[in-house]
Write a structure and sequence with these properties.
By secondary structure, the chain is mostly helical. It has two domains: 220 residues, Citrate Synthase, domain 1 (Orthogonal Bundle); 97 residues, Cytochrome p450-Terp, domain 2 (Orthogonal Bundle). The chain is 59% helix and 2% strand. It is built from 16 helices and three strands. A three-stranded antiparallel β-sheet has the order 1-2-3. Helix 5 runs antiparallel to helix 10 and helix 13 runs parallel beside helix 15. The structure holds s-citryldethia Coenzyme A. The site of s-citryldethia Coenzyme A has 20 residues, from loops.
């Protein structure tokens, strides 16, 4: 094997996958993301990522029924959520909760393909329950039980607010979850594959992936991107704010991508949906501010927006607290992470790259 070195593993092929590729635009199991966003639901796309094929009507109904039956959390974990300080970031709480869930999952130690598929469905069902319950508990409200008749995004909004969400809100959230569901060897997926390549378990891999996604250079950017927009304040102030940021060599959150150098296809899809929701919710000024920033980022730095840039605004327009933006990314991406864990274990070799040594030459201890 020849040794190659590329900072940040840029351009390095670190494994094989049949789940998705960003090579020719983004496809999940061969289906273009544009088609999935337009014609599928998150649950259908999640089934596709996990099982490799789109579900039949019967399979989709059975999948929904299994998710509905698993949309609950042990009372001991709810009690723990009640005790965690309200100031703790939801991403940290979700990381802890994922680890806790292993103690109540009877198949936690079973690393077989079939058991990991079953565990994936339980995590898919339970993460929205945990995020919604914790948000209510920190606000002094009791959790709202899932309604097994609702789809995953509709259930999340129901459990968060205790009122039935509008079709429009559910559809917008559903599309964002499809776009966030899977993305080849991004940092958090690679972390999950690395963890399970030692034959460690699914909960350990997903806990590590949550910790990885939290970073502002990765999934945490969707929260930081809203902070940028709120800091800029208005379309009139955008140009001065961006020029000052670039002068400080600040990283503009929601822009740039290791792979997409001419634009993130997900951002294009989400921009259309976000501007429609903006018009309905009276947020045109924020859209104008975003547009000015986008034009400056491209004209001055050739930086296109990534998926997090429109998603931050969409979640804000849906009235979701900023602290839940990256946890929503987790709720969507857990199926991608898990599919990669299962694929890695089906054809595993422990990951152990080399390092370029830059330390001192061999030397003797002083006598
Ligand atoms: C996600 O990998 C995935 O697939 C991730 C993801 C997924 O679905 O899993 O797509 C989700 O994480 C999207 C990315 C979210 N992160 C951000 O929005 C944070 C801001 N973006 C940057 O930090 C950056 O663009 C990265 C981290 C996304 C990519 O970093 P790279 O490929 O290592 O690029 P780089 O840092 O080497 O930058 C190259 C040049 C540098 O300029 P120079 O130092 O060479 O002069 O471009 C500049 C950078 O300073 N640059 C930026 C910038 N991104 C790159 N300058 C200002 N703002 C930015 N956002």
């Amino acid at each position: 094997m020849s040794e190659t070195y590329s900072p940040g593993l840029e351009g390095v092929i670190a494994g094989e996958t049949a789940i998705s590729t960003v090579e020719t635009g983004l496809t999940y199991r061969g289906y273009a993301i544009e088609e999935l966003a337009e014609h599928s639901t998150y649950e259908e796309s999640a089934y596709l990522v996990l099982y490799g094929e789109l579900p039949t009507v019967q399979q989709a109904a059975e999948f929904r029924a299994r998710l509905g039956a698993a949309a609950n959390v042990p009372p001991e974990i709810i009690e723990t959520l009640r005790k965690i300080p309200a100031s703790a970031p939801t991403m940290d709480v979700l990381r802890s909760a994922c680890s806790l869930l292993a103690h109540w999952d009877p198949e936690a130690a079973d690393n077989s393909h079939a058991a990991n598929v079953r565990k994936t469905e339980r995590l898919l069902a339970k993460f929205p329950v945990i995020v919604a319950a914790r948000q209510r508990l920190r606000s002094g409200q009791d959790p709202v039980a899932a309604d097994s008749k609702l789809t995953l995004p509709a259930n999340f909004l129901w459990m968060l607010r205790g009122e039935k969400p509008s079709e429009r809100q559910v559809k917008a959230l559903d599309v964002s979850l499809i776009l966030y569901a899977e993305h080849e060897f991004n940092a958090s997926t690679f972390a999950a594959r690395c963890i399970c390549s030692t034959l460690s378990d699914l909960h350990s891999a997903i806990t590590g992936a949550i910790g990885t996604l939290k970073g502002p250079l990765h999934g945490g950017a969707n929260e930081r991107a809203l902070e940028v927009l709120l800091a800029v304040g208005s379309p009139q102030q955008a140009e001065a704010w961006v020029n000052a940021a670039f002068a400080r060599k600040d990283k503009l959150m929601g822009f740039g991508h290791r792979v997409y150098k001419h634009g993130d296809p997900r951002a294009v899809i989400l921009k259309r949906l976000t501007s429609a929701v903006a018009a309905e919710t009276g947020n045109q000024a924020l859209e104008q501010t975003a547009e000015i920033i986008e034009q400056m980022a491209w004209s001055q730095k050739k930086l296109p927006p990534n998926v997090d840039w429109p998603c931050a605004r969409l979640y804000h327009y849906l009235g979701l607290p900023m602290d839940l933006f990256t946890p929503l990314f987790v709720i969507a991406r857990v199926v991608g992470w898990s599919a990669h864990v299962i694929e890695q274990l089906d054809n595993n070799r422990i990951m152990r790259p080399r390092a370029l040594y830059t330390g001192p030459a061999v030397r003797k201890l002083p006598r």
